[in-house]
Amino acid sequence: MKKENFKPIDSIIPPPPIHWVGDGFRVHNFFPGPQGLETRISPFFLLDYNSKHLFLPSEKQRGVGVHPHRGFETVTIAYHGMVAHNDSTGNSGVIGEGDVQWMTAGSGILHKEYHEKNFSKNGGIFQMVQLWVNLPAKYKMTSPKYQPILKSEMGNYKIPNNGGNVFVIAGNYLNVKGPASTFSPINLYNVVLKSGFSVDLSFPENYNTGFLIIDGEVNINETEVVKENSYVLFKNSGNDIKISAIKDCTVLVMNGEPINEPLAYYGPFLMNTKEELQQAFEDYQNGLFGYLDD
Ligand code: MN
């Protein structure tokens, strides 16, 4: 790997002040935001990150009640704790520690997201990512679907000498493929490295790239030290990135081909035009997103 071809860091973003989504998700929202980061990280649109937080035991399940989505996908990655999910197409499940749920809202879905019952009862450390992946205009009204992805089903590239793993959720790393099917080219990895080990990644120049440091501390491209809970945005030049673990670490790698289409966004809907947003509200109010018990 040649230094001349390193993908330069654009910015390192410390975790923004927390806010609550329902009463179950204590999140740092990295994008979208006033700096317009969402246009720099397309096809990804929203990143809510519940950094490690101790929830005390509770008889009531914390979370978010029934709400709609249209025009994109929600990808939920559980690092600590478990999330129970139900939606209006009849799908339900529990996202366990290390697992991922890839939900395509497409033309419209209602769902609810709560801490899993026993996790609520016992309390514990909770750490989770919710990433919204935009859909290209021609797929915005695709049928809703749901891909539960267990950790054991992810692509697993083993770093030599027990240095760690690149777990491939979507896309591929050195011919190891991820199980998620996507509507535009995406590479989504959990890179787990032991202290002292490093890994080299390579992506097309025009693809957008960002890292969230989930755990530990890393050095990027042999120059910048980045701490836990920070986000790293890369420039669209060069191809290669070197991650070196200063401490044992987990890094969520988000990379994909930008969707160069207009964004019209309000609350739970992500469309291309204001008219489509209006239509989404009308269709939701007219019950076209189905029904789900509270
Ligand atoms: Mn939701």
List the keywords.
binds manganese (II) ion, 294 residues, 26 strands, mainly beta, single chain, 51% strand, Jelly Rolls, 7-stranded antiparallel β-sheet
Reading the helices and strands in chain order gives EEEEEEEEEEHEEEEEEEEEEEEEEEEH
Helix-strand category:
mainly beta
CATH homologous superfamily title: Jelly Rolls
CATH fold-type name: Jelly Rolls
Q: Judging by the overall fold, what is the CATH architecture?
A: Sandwich
Radius of gyration: 19 Å
Instruction: Order the strands across the largest sheet as they lie in space.
Output: 1-22-19-24-17-14-13
Question: Largest sheet, described in full?
Answer: 7 strands, antiparallel
The CATH class designation is Mainly Beta
* Spatial separation of the terminal alpha carbons: 53 Å
Which overall shape is indicated by the principal axes computed on the Cα atoms? Answer: globular
Helix content, binned percent: under 10%
If you had to describe this structure to a student in words, what would you say it looks like?
This protein is mainly beta. It has a single domain, classed as Sandwich (Jelly Rolls), CATH 2.60.120. Helix content is 6%, strand content 51%. The chain is built from two helices and 26 strands. It has helices at 117-122, 274-285; strands at 9-13, 18-21, 25-31, 44-55, 63-69, 72-80, 83-87, 92-95, 100-104, 109-115, 124-134, 145-149, 155-159, 164-170, 172-173, 176-177, 186-193, 198-202, 208-215, 217-220, 224-227, 231-234, 240-245, 249-256, 264-266, 269-271. The strands form six sheets. The chain has a seven-stranded antiparallel sheet with strand order 1-22-19-24-17-14-13, with no helix packed on it. Strand 25 (264-266) and strand 26 (269-271) form a beta hairpin. The chain is globular. The N and C termini lie far apart (53 Å). The model has no long low-confidence stretch (mean pLDDT 97). The site of manganese (II) ion has 5 residues, from strand 5 and strand 10. Manganese (II) ion binds at residues 67, 69, 74, 111, 113.
